[in-house]
Design goal:
Elements (H helix, E strand, L loop, with lengths): L34 H26 L8 H30 L4 H44 L9 H16 L3 H9 L3 H29 L6 H12 L4 H10 L14 H10 L5
Helix pairs in contact: 1-2, 1-3, 1-6, 2-4, 2-5, 3-4, 3-5, 3-6, 3-8, 4-9
The structure holds fe (ii) ion (2 copies).
The site of one fe (ii) ion has 6 residues, from helix 3.
């Protein structure tokens, strides 16, 4: 089976070693003193390390079947980048634990679930699930980079972490997809898994948020609800901001690089202060 030809020159996938101080993360409600958005950010960070390890494993399973040397090289870059993301999110997770979020419990729980899924789903569906999650993270990355207001209330070091993570998610966004196309190639399966996992992921994230808030003994107040309403559901909010790009995945001929956002990588390179 051959991979679909992307319509753009895909960017190089080079893992970057980053350092974030995180010493500016001193408040439990670090997002605009908002319990709902802060707990969402904490839950998201908690699921990254086990999730990214799962992504790596699902791609590695098929690595030997990939004959294209360029794709092999991109797989190497993908594994390196996801490994670093996982490492940095573990660091911020330890800080989040210190300020009061019991994220280690979430990490342990999602790890167990992913291991169970790996056995229950089998390699094709497990890889399809990775492809879907990579699409969701890439779409979220584009949203965050093009709507800086959504990260503005965060401490600087978390903002830097998420911006770096976002551009690398864009750089490697089609690796799992291209591996799937080459090694499995069943588009129908991809769409079904994607639809199901969207529902499961949204429900799981909500459940984790509820748990984190309960363990923190915090009942959201009116201000929390209004702020979270804006963050998620406003015209330029997360859900509506991601909707169009998210839905593209259901097209028969979709390839992640149909959404050409290479300019965002160049912009980050110009503005982040990172020296290659
Ligand atoms: Fe990542
Ligand atoms: Fe990724």
């Amino acid at each position: 089976m051959t991979a679909m030809q992307p319509i753009v020159d895909m960017p190089e996938i080079k893992p970057r070693k980053m350092k974030f101080p995180f010493s500016d993360v001193t408040e439990q409600y670090f997002y605009d003193d908002n319990a709902l958005v802060s707990s969402f950010m904490a839950a998201l960070s908690a699921v990254f390390p086990p999730g990214e390890m799962g992504f790596i494993e699902s791609v590695r399973y098929y690595r030997d079947e990939i004959t294209d040397p360029e794709l092999q090289e991109r797989i190497g870059g993908f594994i390196g980048q996801e490994g670093h993301h996982s490492h940095q999110h573990k660091k911020i997770n330890a800080v989040l634990e210190d300020v009061g979020w019991l994220v280690s419990r979430i990490e342990a729980d999602i790890s167990k679930k992913i291991n169970y899924d790996k056995k229950r789903l089998g390699p094709k569906n497990f890889l399809a699930a990775t492809v879907g999650m990579e699409h969701i993270t890439a779409v979220m990355a584009e949203y965050m980079l093009t709507n800086p207001h959504c990260l503005a209330p965060l401490p600087q070091s978390i903002r830097d972490l998420l911006n770096w993570h976002a551009i690398e998610e864009i750089e490697h966004k089609s690796v799992a997809f291209d591996v799937y196309q080459e090694a499995v190639g069943e588009r129908g399966r991809l769409r079904i898994v994607f639809a199901l996992q969207t529902v499961v992921f949204a429900a799981q994230m909500t459940a984790y948020q509820v748990k984190l808030l309960r363990w923190a003994k915090r009942t959201p107040n009116f201000r929390d609800v209004v702020g979270a309403g804006k963050f998620f559901f406003a015209k330029k909010g997360l859900i509506r901001g991601m909707a169009k790009n998210y839905l593209d995945f259901y097209r028969d001929d979709f390839h992640p690089w149909d959404q050409d956002n290479r300019a965002l990588i160049d912009e980050w390179k110009r503005t982040s202060g990172y020296v290659e």
